[in-house]
Amino acid sequence: MPLAVYILGLSVFALGTSEFMLSGLLPPLAEDMDVSIPTAGLLISAFAIGMVVGAPLLAVVTLRLPRRATLIALISAFGLGQVVGALAPTYEVLFASRVISALACAGFWAVGAGVAIAMVPLNARARAMAVMIGGLSIANVLGVPAGAFLGESLGWRSAFWAVGGASAVALIGVVTLIPHIPAPAERANLKRELTIYKDGQVWLAVAVTALAGGAVFCAFSYMAPLLTDVSGLSESWVPTVLALFGAGALVGTAIGGRYADAHLFGVQISGITTSAILLGVLALTASNAVAAIILTFLLGVSSFYTAPALNARMFNIAAAAPTLAGATVTAAFNAGNTAGPWLGGVVIDADFGYAATAWAGAAMAVVGIGLAVLALRGHRRGPGGRGRVVAGSAAGVASLDAADTSAAAR
Fold first, then answer.
1. 375 burial type by CB count under 10 A (0-12 exposed, 13-18 middle, 19+ buried)
2. Using one digit for the tens of pLDDT, what is the confidence trace for 241-284?
3. DSSP code for 382
4. Phi/psi zone of residue 180: left (φ > 0), alpha (ψ -120 to 50 degrees), beta?
5. Are residues 198 and 177 part of one domain?
6. Are 333 and 177 in contact (CB under 8 A)?
7. Vertex 136, ends 172 and 274: CA angle to 5°?
8. Contact partners, residue 245, CB within 8 Å, separation at least 6
9. Burial of 188 (0-12, 13-18, 19+ CB in 10 A)
10. Are residues 101 and 230 in the same domain?
11. Is the distance from CB of 272 to CB of 372 less than 8 angstroms?
């Protein structure tokens, strides 16, 4: 794997830490800014929405620009957003800094994913994406808890300064190690790139990606109160359990990246199915602290196990538009990360309790499984498809592997 791909992973570590660290900084931030915690929480929503909007927008705006120069500009803008956030005198300025950071983050994901794909052979795409997603996993394991520690020890602004420093290191890596990758004229035709949205398989991939992510985050977004109010753990346990989710995410990314290139659909369907089962078990056993802790770790594994396959699938079916493919899958993940917590909030507001968010997440996962199976059938009927195979037969198993391998080559 080229060293430049790992630099992209380091950059994603900084991006991911900034995206998720506010969950551990809300109380002191709200007090300092003299706003309520729900109002401070809008900073998280603003970032997520900025990611959804910014990914396709920045992909289009930067379509004809050299890739390396675009990455340099985006990571610089992201770092600037961290500095503005650290110095923000008012809530409004901090809100604006989060929007700037989200737009730059979304653009970097979209362009960076395309660059990572361009630097590796076809059969290593999922592994390249696993390296980038691994940066996000490490952000959950180390970055977010470290941000919470800095916020508690030195004030919430110190966490923004720390991410700004990490962004500067990432910028140096991008400048020195990312090769010059131009935007060739044949790939810079916006009308041509937009034709990917005429493919129903693209929209199926978007839906599966959003549902897979949203299912887990429907429950995980409310894991802290679930652990304290339902499982009976003290608040001091919460950071440790959340870090276990991040550790599971790192494990899942490594395993998924290893097998997704050869078993694209198999990894998707098995991973989402596992998440659905784990969420159902969590809903039933949330009052047991040990079970809740173990299931949190396993949900990290299952949710991030599917991520390399979901990314690679989008790049394979939208190979003619790599930048928009990266933007689309980024928007899909963040749409799920917005819809899942929203659905969980609806469940809680309806007085079903925190454990019921896991049932809602399981329902989202079941829909995602159905759409993934539908996408597999569509792939088999398409060019290179293997025809009709009876599920569960020996031929069915062989055909699934063949479809996986064929999908990786599309």
1. buried
2. 888 988 898 899 889 988 887 888 999 999 999 999 999 999 99
3. S
4. beta
5. no
6. no
7. 160
8. 140, 220, 223, 296, 297, 299, 300
9. middle
10. no
11. yes
* DSSP structure class, residue 196: G
Domain shared by 200 and 56, yes or no: no
> What mean pLDDT comes out for the span 135-146?
80
Pair (171, 195) in one structural domain: no
Q: Residue 237 belongs to what domain range?
A: 190-382
The answer to whether 205 and 329 are in contact (CB under 8 A) is: yes
Q: How far apart are CA 384 and CA 234, in angstroms?
A: 55
Torsions phi, psi for 343 (to 5 deg): -65, -40
CB 66 within 8 A of CB 180: yes
Tens digits of per-residue pLDDT, 189-230?
667 777 888 899 999 999 999 999 999 989 987 888 899 899
pLDDT in the model for residue 327: 82
pLDDT digits (tens, 9 = 90+) for 333-369: 888 888 888 898 889 888 898 999 999 999 999 999 9
**pTM to 2 decimals?**
0.76
Q: What is the DSSP string of 13-26?
A: HHHHHHHHGGGGTH
For position 10, which CATH number holds? Answer: 1.20.1250.20
Question: What confidence score (pLDDT) does residue 190 get?
Answer: 67
Q: Which pLDDT belongs to residue 406?
A: 42
Look at the block and give the residue holding tokens 């031929």. Answer: 395
Reduced to 3 states (helix: H, G, I; strand: E, B; else coil), residue 293 is helix
pLDDT band at 159 (very low <50, low <70, confident <90, very high): very high
Q: Are 72 and 27 in contact (CB under 8 A)?
A: no
∠ CA 101-135-263 to the nearest 5 degrees?
120
Question: Phi first, then psi: what are they for 401, rounded to 5°?
Answer: -65, -40
Name the 3-class secondary structure at 63: coil
Identify residue 68 by its one-letter amino acid code: R
Q: Is 315 helix (H, G, I), strand (E, B) or coil?
A: helix
CA distance 107 to 70: 9
215, 102: one domain: no
Q: Is 329 helix (H, G, I), strand (E, B) or coil?
A: helix
**How many domains in the chain?**
2
pLDDT band at residue 169 using 50, 70 and 90 as cut-offs: very high
Spatial distance between the Cα atoms of 276 and 196, rounded to a whole number of angstroms: 30
The CA distance from 232 to 285, in Å, is: 12
Extract the tokens encoding 294.
Answer: 């173990």
**Tokens 């917590």 belong to which residue?**
341
